[in-house]
Amino acid sequence: MNIKAKRHLQLILFLFGINNTSILAASAEHEHSAQVDSHGDAANDHQHEETHKHGTHENALEHEINTVVLNKAQRLLAGIEVADIYPKEFHLSYYAPAEVKANGYTSYIVSPRTESVVVSRHVILGEKVKKGQKLVTLFSHDMAQAQANYLLAKSDWERVEKLANNAISESERVAVKTKYSAAYGQLVALGLSDFAIKSLQSSASDTLGQYSLVAQQAGIVLKDEFSQGQRISAGSALMLLADETTLWVEAKLSVEAELEPKNIATALVSFKNYEYVAKVIQQTHTIDTKTRTKIIRLSVENKDDVLHAGMFVDVNFIVPSAQKAMLVPESAVMRNEEQNWVVFVEQPDASFLPTEIRLGSQINEERIVFGLPSGSRIAVKGAFFIASEFAKSGFDPHNH
């Protein structure tokens, strides 16, 4: 309160007879208190401002310590690439060793239908043959008798055919024809082809008993288990002939894989530098008690005739995932000083912040990770360089 105001107040108090001493003292005390309060508020405001500035500085410093900033030249030199990571579908791969087998639906066993002796062979193991090609010549007493009966029946029928209708009864004519047809059928039953039967001549008595087995289809000789002069019983396998344009592959899959054929999206058969897409056609319903494996049979088109029965190959079964997951390249994952797994997340200011994650299954050259927010922009290439920059700066992600 200024002097003029005080005097004016004292005059008023004197006119009304009021003791002005206490009033002036209270007024002075109030004024002093206001000044003190004003000074205190200013001090508090100043202290709050200083604290805020200090906290902001500490936050900025902490962010600066926890991240690494790389300039354009460093990024280019280290080959750093970043990518946005979102949950995505993926495929699981199950490996199984396998063996190539002959296609049981396009192969057959060459065998005599009567006890015979091997006279000569005309093809060898592994040779490709054409349909109708001669495979082996045999001799059989039963065949000799059947051929002789056929030649006699054929001769009788040819003679009867030339006779007039009134020269022989109808029943005799039918009997002769029936005997001829039966003799022909006997030769067919013993394995002679129509061409071989028609080639028989009554004058070739020195070749009676000899006959040849021919290829019923084009293919390759997979088995050849006989010797010249060997006596072969009826039904014994002489050769295995198979068409290898389509083959079977039998994969032995561990029962622990719990893989159902209906869930397989693709089956890849690998042999050296060749890879084939195969089709799942069957699976066994029994488990090998020794190896704890089950067999899944595949059908594969044998392009360029590379695969052959008996070869060992590799099979990978590709199965789509049941749900999406966060996948990052293996090269993006590093260990920090505490041996925890981290990836480097790019910040809005283009710096990199290490973010701890947990590793899941490996999917080809990627890893399923947990703890990484969807849409994170991480270093997918050059993470090792970023990690080395952190090591140079002595960075501890936990500020210990």
TrEMBL record:
The UniProt entry, under Pfam families, shows: Beta-barrel_RND_2, BSH_CzcB
Span of domain CusB-like beta-barrel:
247-317
Domain CzcB-like barrel-sandwich hybrid, first and last residues per copy: 109-243
Region entry Disordered: which residue ranges?
A: 29-59
Q: Which UniProt keywords apply?
A: Signal, Transport
- Give the signal peptide range: 1-25
Query: What SUPFAM superfamilies does UniProt report for this protein, alphabetically?
Result: HlyD-like secretion proteins
Question: Keyword Transport on this protein?
Answer: yes
InterPro entries recorded:
Beta-barrel_RND_2 (IPR058792), BSH_CzcB-like (IPR058647), MFP_Cation_Efflux (IPR051909), RND_pump_MFP (IPR006143)
What family name appears in the similarity comment? Belongs to the membrane fusion protein (MFP) (TC 8.A.1) family.
Against PANTHER family, the record matches this protein to:
CATION EFFLUX SYSTEM PROTEIN CUSB
Q: What is this protein called?
A: Efflux RND transporter periplasmic adaptor subunit
- State the taxonomy lineage: Bacteria, Pseudomonadati, Pseudomonadota, Gammaproteobacteria, Alteromonadales
